[in-house]
């Protein structure tokens, strides 16, 4: 479709009640693109995507926008503002309104917001098979940083010698945040505090030191550790991974090979992209589906 036929698009802040419309759009958008490439949908049903967007639209740690055409919502996008590095997603457009410039407007809105807040960097995770999102994000200034393998299953080894895994408590936050600053150069303390409160955060200790933590072993959690062994201990402690799976940096060939030898299966390839500040992490890590 030519630019001349593109509709007038109004972008506004999302209201919590918009999740009733945006949730089904999110589910339909991912179902359609994933099915077209032979992959399972990222959400089990529209209730799951509505629940996620309802949480994001009402959490003050997220900046969320919707796009309207002729007064009708056709898509939404979210920006995680809980750390100095911002995370984008999920961005989804009604399948009937895709490729008309709506996604570009919703991406520009969160990039503008990031710049207005003087945040040093913005990141996202993209489905590697999706030509359109890759083209859109690259043209907007995002660079490819890491190929990722989304993996699911339960490891054959259920623990790693010398590494003790336990639930993280509020008192552990300082040690986990210090580790994140060491590995990534910044911490994700708000994210971690919420995960501790929700009971999904775990940490690993060697001796009396915290050597790794996870906010949640799954699509929406991130994990940071000193070494692959620490990360393996966390991964091995999970009965299953939430959502489609954990995101293993594919260039960490030792970890990827360990996951495969332990029976985990690759679900889909994904790509971490960033604009602004980025430095290679100095440790072992798993990003969330935001970054
Ligand atoms: C990905 C998505 C958000 C993009 O939104 P959209 O409204 O369809 O995209 P837009 O029309 O704003 O922009 C697409 C751009 O990619 C370009 N493009 C599309 N396919 C392309 C290809 N194969 N090669 C090069 N460029 C391509 C278009 O020309 C357009 O560029 P332009 O703005 O310079 O004309 C939307 O398609 C969607 O919801 N997809 C399903 C869910 C999804 O994958 N979400 C993203 C998760 S990472």
Account of the protein in words:
- It is a single chain.
- The strands form two sheets. Strands 1, 2, 3, 4, 5, 6, 7, 12 and 13 form a nine-stranded mixed sheet that branches. Strands 8-9-10-11-14 form a five-stranded antiparallel sheet.
- Helix 1 packs across helix 2.
- The longest helix is centred in the first third of the chain and has 18 residues.
- It is globular and about 65 Å long.
- It starts with 9 loop residues before the first strand and ends in a 5-residue tail after the last strand.
- With 291 residues, the chain is an alpha+beta fold.
- It contains eight helices and 14 strands.
- Helices cover 33% and strands 28% of the residues.
- The protein binds coenzyme A (COA).
Short description:
Helix content is 33%, strand content 28%. By secondary structure, the protein is of the alpha+beta class.
How far is it from the N-terminal to the C-terminal residue, by CA?
32 Å
Which stretches are low in confidence, meaning pLDDT under 50 for 5 or more residues running?
none
Residue share in β-strands: 25-35%
Instruction: Give the names of the bound compounds.
Output: coenzyme A
Task: State the helical fraction.
Answer: 25-40%
Q: Main beta sheet: strand number and arrangement? A: 9 strands, mixed
Tell me the radius of gyration: 19 Å
Count of helices? 8
Average pLDDT metric? 97
Estimate the global geometry from the Cα principal axes.
globular
Q: How many runs of DSSP E, i.e. beta strands?
A: 14
**What order do the helices and strands follow?**
EHHEEEEHEHEEHHEEEHEHEE
Structural class: alpha+beta
